[in-house]
Amino acid sequence: MGLLSVLIGSLRDSLVLQIIAAFGALLAHPAAQAIYNLYFHPLSKFPGPKLCAASRLPFIYCLLTGKLTQREREFHKKYGDFLRLAPDEVSFASEEAWADIYTYRPGHKRALRDKAYYIAPNNQADNLITTSDEKFHARVRGLISNSFTEDSLRS
Length: 155
Fold this sequence. Notes:
Blueprint: H1 2-13, H2 15-39, H3 50-54, H4 57-65, H5 68-79, E1 82-86, E2 89-92, H6 95-102, H7 134-144, H8 150-154
């Protein structure tokens, strides 16, 4: 305990050591989070750029500069049909994945829609695309589904 009490005492007395300790504490969390995202996160086995897997900052930068889809295409060429775009996001670029993810399967619940992404523009009424209400979606889809059958689209 003697060494620890000496360190704490010198930390109390020195403003420079307090500032260094504060910066060290501020840097420790993002560093630990990046290590977790790279090696221990459930999505860590997916291929993709390591910087994108460690932090969401590259994703946000590409999004704000308008180059997200371009970079995503480049990544898919380099890493294949599926890759990790961010610590908590995986991108798929195949028709089979689209069908597996978005097709309704009997006995399974419909995927929940996040209201942050599905909002009608300019306070307009909900529609088939923007609604998060399952009953409304089923009713409207049932009304227009005949218009999109293969026979209807061919005629």
